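Hello, quick one for you while I still have it in my head. My current little project is about how a certain protein chain folds up. You're getting the sequence in one-letter code plus the fold written as tokens. Would you mind checking whether the tokens look sensible for this chain? Here's the protein in full, and shout if anything looks odd to you:
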Amino acid sequence: MDTSPGRLLIQMSGPPGSGKSTMARMLQRSLGGLVIDHDVIRSSLLQDLDFDRAAKQAYALQWALAEEALKQGLNVFVDCVCNYQQVLDHGAALAERHGCTYWYVECRVDSIDVLDQRLRARKPMRCQRTSVDVFPDAAQDQRKGQDPRAMFTKWMEKPVRPDSNVIIVDSSGSLEDARDHILQSISNTREAPRASRQHLCN
């Protein structure tokens, strides 16, 4: 097992439009390392696969890339919607295997209207929504009969979180302030005993 000190595997979380991709890159600029963007991988796979198969393959590829980066001694920022316990378990196991500290960083926006405005304003990738009320174009056939707003609301209200090393920030305001809080929280606990810790920035 690689035991290089101080390396991090940071799992970003938050619904689409919450600012997690922007925050991942802000943290990368401060800490160094590699951002693995799940949506970039999935969108490239949609040229040959349907939406769900592309998602499954994208997760496999993101973890393979994360492991290779950790082997190279890099910090890793996993930028994906974190709706399933398997995502947490896989990331935590990967961090433990390579002697890294695992952190979960959630970007939270409590207003679904703000998230909807952000989604409508951005230029979407093929796998991304253009609104809270619309599934991605590539997913329309496989999501027939499902309620896009209800699914989105579930992501907002019932996020999947680990029991420790959790940082939750309000990303409806200054992302710079949120980034500084995240960095300070990580710095403060690097020398502290590992325990159940949760940091909330309002």
